[in-house]
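Morning F.,

Quick status update on the modeling queue. The single chain you submitted on Monday has been processed. Sequence for confirmation:
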Amino acid sequence: MSGGTYINGIQKGLVAPLVDAADNETVAEVVGNKSDTVAGTSLVALVKQIVAAVPPTADVTAIKAVTDLIPDAGAMTSIAQEATLGAPVGASLSADIAAVQTDVTAIKAVTDVLPDAGALTSLAQDLTVAKEATLGAPVGASLSADMAAVQSAVDGLNDISASDVNNEVDTALNTIVPASPTAGSLNDVLSKASGGNTFDKATDSLEAIRDIIDTNNTSDQVDLDAILEDTSTTLPSTLSGIETKIDTVDTVVDGIQTDLDNATDGLGALKTLIDTVQSTADNIETDTQDLQTQIGAAGLGLSAIPDMAKDSNIEILLDHIHMPCKVYPTLADGVTVTADATAWTLGAFVVVVPASTITAGFDIHHISVEALSANDIYELVLYSGADLSETEIGRVRFTKNANQDGTMDVPFQTPINAANSQIKAKLATNAGSSTADISIFYHTY
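Structure tokens below.
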């Protein structure tokens, strides 16, 4: 058969025109004169049966009006789902499910990194330890037990009546203050000495203190009226006088400051002058030190004359001319000096004046030649200084021959030697190995 709905081989669309058919001719005209070869019933008769079974047209129209309002199969499915799950929150139940799936995925990403059951147990134990480290270990079986005990104690406090508290306070207030209360306690506050109480209510109570304040103009009380009078009259006048004097001092100080700031006579100017003087003094000191260095280096100046404060070379010359002459050795034989065996070769050192013998600065004016061993030409050299540090201070020649014995006072000149200086001598001769007995003439400064 072609498309459409069929009833016992008859297309449903053909039924409607048959509903109102009244005779066979109408049926035959619509379906033709066909017979149902299977049932043995003519097609016309069959159609009549169908037509007879179809409700009236009005009923069909009413039924169609109802069925037209029924949704199709897909809509019916959605209605069934909404009846079971409720209306969707989003555009549809599918959208709601997709949103739930997104949330589930996010939750899974978090739960995937959570520890397993054993680790969670360890974590719980760690949290317990941390909690006890913060709150302290429980006194009883647990912190909950401790909290329950505290709550019980608080409940016990709630059972104390106001009268109980009042009675305890009254008893405490009416108890005699001990002679030696605890230091810093309320009882101790009533005493000047810590730990010792000499409270006397006649003089130390609040009422006694108030009586003293209220009573004026007695020998042992505070005269508040006099204080008030001084405060309102005498004190302002006194303060005014003090202020006037302060203003005067301020004026004087300003004048002093002006003088100090003066460009000519002020501290700044004086400081400049002092700096200039200091600079000049520094230059003089430098020059003096340089002069002293030069005098000392030459061995002729003041630094070479210990224990002698001379101001100028004139005084040194005067001393050189007029100081008493001395000899060494004195009241003893002279010192023998021997020449080297080689001609004109100085022999060994011989000490003429031992160290620390002449205790002032001195110079030598003459050599006394007292004996010569042979006819010869002699050359004598004198030295000043410690062993191994000898410095030549002068030399002289003298002769012995058939006509003269060579004994004489030979003029001699040396630098001024420091006090306690050691003097040595060496001798050389033309023939060699000759000796000379000598002493020195000197004077001190």
